[in-house]
Amino acid sequence: MKANIGTLDRVVRLVLGLFVLALGYYFQSWWGLIGLLPVLTAVFRFCPAYLPFGLNTCATKDQGQPPAA
């Protein structure tokens, strides 16, 4: 499983997931468990939904280096 979630994407998923979990707890609803999905994808840095579209929000390793001549 290769990481395909970058730092900003990871933080947003974690915050929104925890928020949904908190709302579910506050309103005593099982729907709050949907918040586990973004939390788990943030923890494992892998999103299966990105695979079919070829998305990857991770920074590339060659950033900051001048292009080869």
Write structural notes for this entry.
The chain is mainly α and 69 residues long. It is built from 2 helices and no strands. The protein has helices at residues 7-26, 36-44. The chain is elongated and about 55 Å long.
Task: Give the tags.
elongated, 69 residues, 2 helices, mainly alpha
What is the element layout, followed by pairings?
Layout: H1 7-26, H2 36-44
Structure described in brief:
This protein has 69 residues and is mostly helical.
Mean pLDDT: 90
Number of strands: 0
Major β-sheet annotation = none
Unreliable runs, pLDDT <50, ≥5 residues? Answer: none
Class derived from helix and strand content: mainly alpha
> Approximately what portion of the residues adopt beta-strand conformation?
under 5%
> What fraction, in percent, of the residue positions are helical?
40-55%
Net shape: elongated
| CA(first)-CA(last) distance | 33 Å
- The gyration radius over C-alpha positions equals 16 Å
DSSP helix count? 2
Order of helices and strands: HH
